[in-house]
Amino acid sequence: MGRLGELDTNTEALTNRINAHAAYGKRDLEEWVFAQLDVQPGHSILELGCGTGKQTIPLARLVGNHGGIKAVDLADDSISILRQQAETNGLIGRIDLVNSSLDDTENYLSEADAFDRAVACYSIYYANEPAKLFAAVHSKLNMDGRFFFCGPARMNNSELKALHQRVSDKRLPIAATSFMEDEGLKLAKECFSRVIVTSFINPLSFSSADALYDYWRSHNLYDPGSDSRFKDAANSHFIDHDVFVTNKRVCGALAIK
Fold first, then answer.
1. What pLDDT, on the 0 to 100 scale, is given for residue 10?
2. CATH assignment at residue 177
């Protein structure tokens, strides 16, 4: 897929980033996402790019015994981790797990499917045919259904990117941010009756050079050829500073049928 970065489907890297956001961040992305979706008990939800279940598990709790989640992801190991978590939490009966690319809608959407909500966190821009995907989601939403998708804004991690550019010639990833702020919004507005654009900022405060390096290493910015130079730059920063702060800047769009 043209939009995929080297570490986007790496489950270990994804897990490391999720853990870093929880450990060093000040705000909860899930609270923001769920506020946009307005999930109610009994809702049926389509989740595109569920990963290891960061949103899936709490969504399954919210929909209750009479609701359900169809969770789709390309990575086999992510699906396996999510299945284990769902079984451990007694939620597997509420979750239909599908190992598929987002483009293969024929694999995971049936004629009988109807959803109250759809969500795609950090995933929608992986589709090779996003217009087809938007149309498929729209067609499967019930009346007054909501589709919320989010991903990195252009200024996402600008502080980390600035440090990265000091030590590396590796090009910064732009496909996802361009999609979120331009192409994706245009496609949503063509397909849905109303689109509300929103944003979220989560400052990540790293307390050591090692923590900062570990985060960079799990990110698509990572450049093995600049490994030692990044470590030196991180160590130099912490000679005069107690923390390194980079801001996760997220662009979100709520598309209402």
1. 61
2. 3.40.50.150
